[in-house]
What does this fold into?
Amino acid sequence: MKKFKFILPVMAILCSVGLSFASVFSAMNTGLFVELQDGTPYELQTQVNCEVNEQLSNQCEVIIESLAPEEGPYQVYDDSSFSTPLKTNEVPPIVIPD
It folds into this structure.
């Protein structure tokens, strides 16, 4: 019985440490989209500083390093139907790893 009282907490600690390494990071949904060359929507996984504001001076454009960077820059939209282009105060294009 003494071994059981010792082994049970040790096993619980080992399982909790093991499960902490088993969890997978899920990509963040930003709600920001770009239109790829073939017309399909691609949701950005990296948040960029863009917003719907007509007073901002520059179109929000990104270059996505994980895709073919030479195909960019891509205009950023707030929905997958590409109806509302976003703007930014940053100098476009913004390079993101995504």
